[in-house]
Amino acid sequence: MTVSLGKDLVGLEHLSREQITAILDTAEPFKEVSERQIKKVPALRGKTIVNLFFEPSTRTRISFEFAEKRLSADTVNVAASGSSVSKGETLVDTARNLEAMRIDMVVIRHGSSGAAKFLGDRINSNVINAGDGKHEHPTQALLDMLTLRDRFGSIEGLKVCIVGDVLHSRVARSNIWGLTRLGAEVAVCGPATLLPRDVEQLGVTVFPRVEAAIEWADALNVLRLQLERMTSGFIPSLREYNRVFGVTAEKLARAPKDLCILHPGPMNRGVEIDSEVADGPHSVILPQVTNGVAVRMAVLYLLAGGSQDAGSSGSEMS
Amino acid sequence: MNAPLLFRDGRIVDPSQGLDEVSHLLIQDGKVAAIGRDVGVPDGAEVIDATGWVIAPGLIDVHVHLREPGQEDRETIATGAASAVAGGITGICAMPNTDPVIDNQSAVGFVKARGEAAGLARVYPIGCISVGQRGDQLAEFGEMVAAGAVAVSDDGHPVMSSQLMRTALEYARTFGIPVADHCEDMPLAVGGAMHEGIVATRLGLKGIPSAAEEIQVARDCILAGLTGGHIHLCHMSTRGSVDLIRRAKEQGLSVTAEAAPHHYTLTHERVGDYDTNAKMNPPLREAEDREAIRAALADGTIDCIATDHAPHTYDAKEREFDDAPNGIIGLETALSLGLRELVQGGVLSLSTLIERMSCAPARLWHLPGGTLRPGTVADVVAFDPAAEWTVDISRLCSRSRNTPWGGETMPGVVRRTVVGGRVVYST
């Protein structure tokens, strides 16, 4: 069976259950590549990939870069400081110039929602969204789902609550689309100031208090709280946020079962999550990072035209 | 003087006289000379067979951005006026948020002179409420009115200070001009790129809540009551605003309002996957809001239709949604959208559409035209309501192409636009 992802991976909203499952299944054999002595397969040999980052990113950029290198692609990192507007060159001009150098793929991180789709509609190369504004961060959600699948065996019927600043979170949106598509029950929890308008219309339950979310959920995906949310008035203080919405060992102790804890990073320890929880036995925060490389290898591989079957056969990869 | 012009056998629709009948219309010496089956043909008259056409008072658009001076890459007064007459619009009120802004008599005089030089639609300057549109000091209304300004507005920059709006309404009474307000509570709306609702949530865009408009509408109505001044509410977009205006009118306050074609036609769903030609301020709202705007146009709660014609260059719109400017062009599609959405849509009669697009703006803003009464200026539109045309963005008269209706086929082809007895557009 061959499932195509199309030209670009802009988000999970428009992906089918089969497409998402194909990515996760393709990631499985790639996990093993990173455990080898020689962490390299020739799948993308000769392909040129540009990592076009208009926003600072450490984890996502390095994860993509490892994924590309372990697939033997040639990669270039472009860190555009500030916005394309302040540079004077438009996003589409930047991309067309890169494409004129005959590249195959662009991985884009951009501060504006819709930037990845905008780019994908205007250039011939494959475009992978590494986070666009508050819109989507599909590979993050895919690695979250791969991690949940590792832990629970299946996503179907799983109760996952996304906790924190859902309003500004591309991770939250991609998780909502992906998890609901795979049959999970999804909830969001956070201060009302940080929940998007009409979010329940995306098919999620809203918990106003984290205690209720903890009682309900099998897994919590705890979002990073940006310090600027306090200075711009969404919450009164980080201290109060931790007290009311922080995922603490004390609150988790009252849960009827052990909750699996995810966090997309980077963490603010003592704000949205306590160290005891982040480093505890039910945290899968580091496995998430490990899975990130495998999921990104799978996405790159499938967009480059590799088939899911070839990905799992091993022969092409060794 | 131009030769006399006789439209024969057209359907003459003039709500100002309660007229809707097939007849002849004679234009002579720049004025409407006569309407009737028995009108004779003067010597040298051009006779136009208007069978199947509608003959109506020329449309008047009280909310247009002509971009000159300062932004001539988007539009000029001449291209904007050409775009207007192509849409059957004979009078346009030019918003003052140009570069520099129109906040003094010489700037007003410039706009008026450029309009006259173009010799197409009548161009009526709107002056600023505040010097530099900075929202603190009143501009010189008296001198601007003497130079030709027909209203004042800080459009594009909401008047946040209630004190300034109070004094503007009081002071404008002296000159009998409306104060046109872009209603938007800035702190509530700041950074917003579209309507706050499910589509903004899906797309991860910051929303502008309906409350941002409604709070200012409520304030302006209250200040109209306090001052007795004439507040004109620009581009109303929410059902809550409609309720507030309805209540203010019941109280007899001097409140008038306009709605734009995009707000009675489209909803926030039209943004789709970040279509910047669906980005405007106020934003496209929800289906319930669109229905409320339609109902308000039907019952007169909203007095008139104005396009908020806002030209932007291709490059400006061809970018990330957050960074793209607000607004779409509208002069050439307004009549057709009125026919398609409101008349064919069963919301308004053709006569009421003409009332909202011609008679009401003329009456409320004290402008010439808006009637075919003999002896008045001959500003006339003749259009074929049954014929269709396709919006080809490469063939529009406007210098800009930022319309969400490109490629759509619409009813209503303008056959003649007459300003002051002179044919300024014909197909």
Description:
The complex is a heterodimer of chains A (318) and B (427). By secondary structure, chain A is an alpha/beta fold. Chain A has 2 domains: 17-137 and 292-311, Aspartate/ornithine carbamoyltransferase (Rossmann fold); 138-288, Aspartate/ornithine carbamoyltransferase (Rossmann fold, 3-Layer(aba) Sandwich). Chain A has helices at 17-33, 59-70, 84-87, 91-100, 115-120, 138-152, 170-181, 210-216, 228-231, 238-245, 249-253, 275-278, 285-303, 308-313, and strands at residues 48-53, 74-79, 105-110, 126-132, 159-163, 185-189, 205-207, 219-222, 260-262. In chain A, helix 5 (115-120) links the parallel strand 3 (105-110) and strand 4. In chain A, helix 6 crosses helix 7 (170-181). In chain B, strands 1, 2, 3, 4, 5, 16, 17 and 18 form an 8-stranded mixed sheet that branches. Chain B is globular, with a radius of gyration of 20 Å.
Reconstruct the topology from this structure.
The complex is a heterodimer of chains A (318) and B (427).
Chain A: H1 17-33, E1 48-53, H2 59-70, E2 74-79, H3 84-87, H4 91-100, E3 105-110, H5 115-120, E4 126-132, H6 138-152, E5 159-163, H7 170-181, E6 185-189, E7 205-207, H8 210-216, E8 219-222, H9 228-231, H10 238-245, H11 249-253, E9 260-262, H12 275-278, H13 285-303, H14 308-313
Parallel strand pairs in A: 1-2, 1-3, 3-4, 5-6, 5-8, 6-7, 8-9
Helix pairs in contact in A: 1-6, 1-13, 2-13, 6-7, 6-13
Chain B: E1 5-14, E2 19-28, E3 31-35, E4 46-49, E5 54-57, E6 59-64, H1 77-86, E7 89-94, H2 105-118, E8 122-127, H3 141-147, E9 151-153, H4 162-173, E10 179-181, H5 186-189, E11 194-195, H6 198-203, E12 207-208, H7 210-227, E13 231-233, H8 239-250, E14 255-259, H9 261-265, H10 287-299, E15 304-305, H11 314-317, H12 334-343, H13 350-364, E16 380-390, E17 409-419, E18 422-426
Parallel strand pairs in B: 1-4, 1-5, 6-7, 7-8, 8-9, 9-10, 10-13, 11-12, 13-14, 14-15
Antiparallel strand pairs in B: 1-2, 2-3, 5-16, 16-17, 17-18
Helix pairs in contact in B: 1-2, 2-3, 4-7, 7-8, 8-10
